[in-house]
Write a structure and sequence with these properties.
eight-stranded mixed β-barrel; 30 helices; five-stranded antiparallel beta sheet; globular
């Protein structure tokens, strides 16, 4: 339908002015909101400062009270006690008044705590045992500290939030030092260092050191300078010296050398020094906020003047161009017709390429295209007039849709995300959707348009086990996080490796499928049970809100089912199975089940339920033996390096060798799985790293081929190991032939430290590779941040790529993405010619595996 432009353009010419006016209001509104946020931030900081004062005086009062009880003084009128109570009461009153002023703050709980502190005389603290009195103060102080720690999470101002976070760490450190003061007051008063006092001292000293480290990690340089300016001097040194003296001479220290009053005086000065740091920190933050508020005032003034000038200018320009606009209506109408034609073609193209639907403002479907009907299985008549929940899958969380409607209806912004839908036949499919609200001239929603793409194949590749078609480890990890009150049993087929070796891997795979089908069919009718293939010959059953005894009974029935004799390719198969059950919390349930499984296997029993009393003595004994073997190997040069070639897929040249660590134990050569984890626990891991680096550099110093060395994140972050590697690079001058492989299964917390190491070795022309990519903590973001030259795809994706279509899809995606970033790809676990042909066809640059050569001690 054509617009009657000649009759409407005069009206339309004023729209720019209206637009600028709306923009002005929105901009000013945002600035005013910023000012309101700053006022709220200032309120939070004043609250934190007030609570911090209460904590400070409560710490001093705790020390004085503990000292009086230790000296059997029960006179409430003691001048020192009265003075500090006065300060505490004033601080409590100030904090109460400040917190009461904030209508937006959730302060009921902390106000109750302050009221309890105000009424603390009712507890008759001087009549209590010293431990009970200290416990009273400690609990109240912990409540106050917890409130301070919550405040940063309520703030939008990142800079001030970090300052306040730093202050919360400082408050916790000060509280720990206060606990140390109270503990040693009791020790010096009684002239006796009990085991409980010693344990308490060690505990709070660890907390003090940790919170100081946290403070320094998050604090800015100027805050660190404030800290170092205040927290120094003779009293601080004396305080730390007394604490260290107690710890170093715990069994023969002479407690009469230090009077309790002297200790209290020195430690109080140290605590006051930390309090001074807090005071200056709050002063600085409040000053920053005031400066920001002043800046906002000038912003409002400047924006207002600018917008006034803009509106005047636009009005003038609008008047000038009206004649030109009115004279051009014929041309505009023609362009409009052309645009409508193009839009119709665009719409037809979208309809053919995507899954499209429209709904009215209430969410009722008004239009679906053919692709929508095709994938859902519903006809157009069955969908139009219905809500989209006709497609809702029961596994989709309600909070996702709640967030979606909040974005669309309340914020009136586009929403995009991934949704699991239900087809008419009951099967499911994944879509990636972009939903856009269509607004009228009053900014009210009139309808919604949704454009979707089918991502079922990609999603299934991540959460479905390629061999059995059931849920995999990734899906299990997700469900453990999302489900509540779960039970878990893990099943492992006994001696399955022997069956694989005797019948072959293809036969073994058929047995795995048969076992998976057996277990799934047995439990599938129970909606409170879920089945997963964990890995290899391990399966998991999860019970959701399941009775404990009933779950154990069901697990025993599964064990009996697995042990039933069956025939596979005319071969009669009889299997046994071990099982571990866990009812632990979400973070430890799988670990507990695995531990129970291992213990059951070692004990020769079918089933074991995890509990804290499971004996780990044998494991500890084995760890001690292996720890000694590692130490002997390091001393006797029995940590050795094997080398496996990395082959160029184009010309089959042996271009590189990866160094693989082994340990010689008599006539045996032990793989790293036997000793590396224990080496990390016994702090011998870095010695192994140095030994590998030395042997690798010696082996390749006169060769032209490149050498690849595995490094963990801890290797790169350890200053001693890092300096050793840089020294060896400088000494041997082979940096241009050295590749450092970062173990990708480790999560990188300290990116700055890792990037610093990479930058250091690249000065020697070294290259970086990401190892085991595709499992563990695989993250494409790592690649963008670390910018490695090589990417090694994990063997779990490669070894079944000739049978697993999903693995091939994932590898193809990794290759395309990496090549676009300029990285070369290495495939691990290339064990057959068929696998080699596939990875070469997918564009993988190099291969490594037994198809070419197993690891050898010499080249």
């Amino acid at each position: 339908m054509k617009l009657k432009l000649k009759s409407k353009l005069l009206f339309l010419s004023i729209l720019p002015t209206l637009f600028i006016a709306i923009l002005s209001f929105m901009l000013l509104s945002d600035i005013i909101k910023d000012r309101q946020n700053l006022n709220l931030t200032k309120q939070y900081i004043l609250e934190a400062e007030a609570i911090s004062k209460v904590i400070h005086y409560m710490q001093i009062e705790r020390g004085i009270t503990a000292g009086m009880i230790a000296h059997n003084k029960t006179d409430e009128r003691d001048i020192n006690l009265q003075d500090i109570k006065t300060f505490t009461d004033k601080a409590v009153l100030d904090a109460y008044n400040i917190l009461s002023k904030c209508d937006l703050c959730d302060s009921a709980e902390i106000l109750n705590t302050l009221q309890e502190i105000k009424n603390r005389d009712n507890s008759k603290l001087l009549t209590l045992l010293i431990h009970d009195a200290k416990q009273y103060y400690t609990k109240k102080t912990e409540s106050l500290l917890l409130f301070i720690k919550k405040i940063p999470s309520m703030m939008n101002d990142k800079e001030n939030r970090n300052h306040l976070q730093a202050q919360s760490y400082l408050s916790s450190a000060k509280e720990a030092l206060g606990q140390i003061r109270a503990t040693l007051m009791e020790v010096y008063s009684n002239k006796k260092l009990s085991e409980n006092s010693l344990m308490s001292l060690v505990k709070f000293l660890e907390i003090y050191n940790l919170e100081c480290a946290n403070f320094k990690a998050i604090a800015t340089d100027d805050l660190i300078a404030i800290y170092e300016n205040h927290f120094k001097g003779e009293a601080v040194e004396k305080t730390m010296s007394i604490i260290n003296s107690i710890l170093e001479h715990r069994h023969n220290t002479d407690l009469s050398l230090v009077e309790s009053s002297y200790w209290f005086e020195q430690s109080t000065i140290s605590i006051n020094a930390l309090r001074a740091v807090e005071h200056d920190l709050f002063a600085r933050v409040l000053s920053l906020i005031d400066n920001k508020k002043n800046l906002i005032f000038y912003k409002i003034l400047l924006v207002s003047l600018f917008l006034l000038f803009t509106i005047i200018t636009l009005v003038f320009i609008s008047v000038l161009i009206v004649r030109k606009i009115l004279s051009s209506t014929d041309s505009l109408e023609k362009n409009y017709d052309d645009s409508i034609s193009l839009l119709e073609q665009y719409r037809a193209t979208v309809d053919r390429s995507f899954i499209v639907s429209k709904t009215d403002a209430k969410g009722i479907i008004t239009y679906v295209n053919d692709e929508f009907c095709k994938i859902s299985g519903f006809s157009r008549d069955e969908l139009v007039g219905k809500y989209h929940n006709i497609l809702r899958h029961p596994e989709m969380q309600k909070k996702i849709f709640k967030e979606m409607w909040h974005t669309l209806r309340d914020l009136k912004k586009p929403w995009q995300g991934e949704i699991l839908n239900l087809k008419k036949d009951g099967s499911s499919y994944w879509i990636k959707a972009i939903i856009n609200p269509i607004l009228d001239k009053d900014s009210e929603v009139v309808e919604y348009i949704a454009i979707r793409t089918d991502i079922t194949e990609i999603k299934n590749a991540l959460i479905i086990d390629a061999l059995t078609g059931y849920n995999n480890r990734v899906k299990l990890s997700n469900d453990i996080k999302e489900l509540k009150n779960i039970s878990l049993s893990v099943f492992n087929l006994d001696d399955f490796r022997q069956l694989n070796d005797f019948y072959g891997h293809e036969f073994g795979n058929l047995v795995i499928i048969e076992m998976a089908n057996k277990i799934y069919n047995f439990i599938s009718k129970d909606k409170k049970l879920k089945f997963f293939r964990l890995q290899g010959d391990e399966f998991v059953v999860v019970g959701i809100q399941y009775d404990r005894e009933l779950f154990i009974k069901k697990t025993k029935e599964i064990l009996l089912l697995v042990k039933e004799r069956f025939t596979m390719q005319n071969e009669e198969i009889l299997l046994s199975c071990s099982c571990g059950i866990s009812f632990e919390d979400d973070d430890h349930i799988l670990l507990g089940a695995n531990m129970a499984l291992k213990t059951a296997k070692k004990s020769g029993i079918d089933l074991l339920v995890y509990n804290d009393s499971l004996s780990l003595n044998e494991q500890y004994k084995n760890n001690m033996i292996v720890t000694k073997k590692i130490a002997d190997a390091l001393n006797n040069n029995n940590i050795i390096t094997y080398y496996q070639p990395i082959v160029n897929n184009t010309d089959l040249a042996y271009e590189k060798y990866e160094c693989l660590v082994r340990m010689r134990d008599g006539d045996e050569i032990l793989p790293p799985a036997f000793f590396l984890d224990i080496a990390k626990q016994s702090k011998q891991y870095f010695g192994i790293t140095k030994a590998v680096v030395l042997q690798a550099f010696e082996m390749f110093k006169d060769k032209e081929t490149e050498v690849s060395i595995n490094l963990s994140i801890n290797d790169m972050l350890d200053e001693e190991v890092s300096n050793y590697i840089l020294m060896m690079l400088d000494k041997y001058k082979i940096g241009n032939r050295v590749i450092f492989e970062i173990v990708e299964s480790e999560y990188i917390n300290n990116f700055e430290g890792v990037l610093k190491f990479i930058k250091s070795v690249k000065r020697f022309n070294c290259k970086i590779a990401i190892d085991d990519f595709g499992t563990g903590y695989s993250n494409f973001g790592y690649l963008i941040k670390l910018r490695p030259e090589y990417l090694k795809i994990d063997g779990s994706l490669i070894k079944n790529i000739d049978k697993d279509r999903n693995a091939r899809l994932i590898v193809s995606t990794i290759v395309d993405f990496s090549h676009k970033l300029g990285m070369k790809i290495v495939a691990e676990f290339v064990e057959s010619e068929e696998i080699f042909k596939i990875v070469k066809e997918l564009g993988v640059d190099s291969s490594q595996g037994y198809f070419f050569s197993k690891p050898k001690e010499s080249l």
